[in-house]
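On clarity, I found the account of how folds are encoded harder to follow than it need be. What matters is that the chain and its backbone geometry are given together, residue for residue. For the editor and my fellow referees, an illustration may be useful. For illustration, here is how one protein appears when written out as sequence plus structure tokens:

___
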Amino acid sequence: MLMCEGQYGKVYSAVNMDNGELMAMKEMKFQANDHQALKELADEIILFEGMQHPNLVRYYGVEVHRDEMLVFMEYCDRGTLEEAAKMGLPEHNIRVYTREILLAVNYLHEHNILHRDIKGANIFLTSSGCLKLGDFGCSEKLKSHATLPGEFNSLVGTMAYMAPEVITRNASQGHGRAADIWSLGCVVIEMSTGKRPWYDLENSAQIMFKVGMGGKPQIPDTLSAEGKDFLGHCFESDPPDRYTAAELLDHPFVKVEEQDGETS
């Protein structure tokens, strides 16, 4: 059964014939004998097949056919965060979800991996209550623990969630982990308002111009002072000034679970 269709392929529900469990199966098409495309798709699988984290969608394996690759992944049964946030979410939920996204992003960054397409449509909910970051079609591995100048300079991701350096940086400067943090901030806005950033602009070209000229997404008035401060650190224009995932995990905005545990 077709579950969804995205930029990098269609996703179906499937059954593991060995144990009867549901899985998600991503169908990724490529031209026959296009070895470069096959290598790029395989690289995505190699990056994530061995990774296990409660807030990352698990990869199980892959089948390669003549003109397509089938990727088998963990099945998330409660849809996407984009769908859940259509009407906006209570701030308590936003805090909890933001922390879970940060835990996933921090894990990727500690393993020298950039996601590069963090948005509500790529974050999944489960009946266990655990939120999971998935869809790694844009992800890349860094060459070293520190982001090197010019390491990534391609225009990859979803425009409304894209950091300014992804849009404007030249080949010598490029972008790195900080671009994921900007995108995370955009997801917080999405959860708060039910809309993607820059929803009032008509097309990607207008967003590129706005962000390229130094524009930042509008921080929702409904967020608490802690939430607004958190987003301020996500939306620093200069990437070195932006908080890292590890630093954001220490921010009061995402300490809600710890506080609840102390008061209960």
In short: Residues 2-74 form a domain with the Phosphorylase Kinase; domain 1 fold (CATH 3.30.200.20). The chain has a mean pLDDT of 81.
